[in-house]
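Sat 14:20. Reprocessing the chain from the morning session after the first attempt stalled halfway. Input below, unchanged.
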Amino acid sequence: MLSIVPADPGKWVLLNYRLPREPSTPRITLWRRLRGWGVVQVGDGLVALPADARTREQLEWAAEEVLEAGGTAVVWLAHPTTAAQERAMAEVMAAARAAEYDDLAAAATQALTSSGPEQARTLRRLRRQWREITRRDFFAPEQREVAAAALRALTGAQSVDDIGTRSADPAVRVTATSNTGSDDGRRP
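Finished this time. Tokens:
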């Protein structure tokens, strides 16, 4: 069961946009950015995020870029007319994050069999991925805890390995406290 916890429950921010076919670079750039924010595709040229100050600012910024590229864009604040509609959007978003968490957990589990330096590189990459995923995770699926546990296991394996084989290369020395980029309290 999903728990919906946006700042204003039931309120969503939507971006309705249209970009010219040529040049294609602005369309591709916009779509990559929207995917990175974890939007749900409501329709052709219509995306949504649960409304809060950050998501509203993100979509307003995207709308400005669309206008600068010669397109049209409008940002809306809206409430789905039924709980089922909202649940459907939340489920689509949660399923996308669940797949990302599944991939992250599989990579962390696979990294347990690799060498110490390779584990360290993988751990840094997976921590970066964790931060990216959790920034766009509005409806925390169960797979989040599985991925967190896999990362903790990899962190523990790397920390134990690090104690026995101190490397002169500081990039290889990864410990449980080396995650300097996360201040959101969601680090595993």
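DSSP finds five helices and four strands in the chain.
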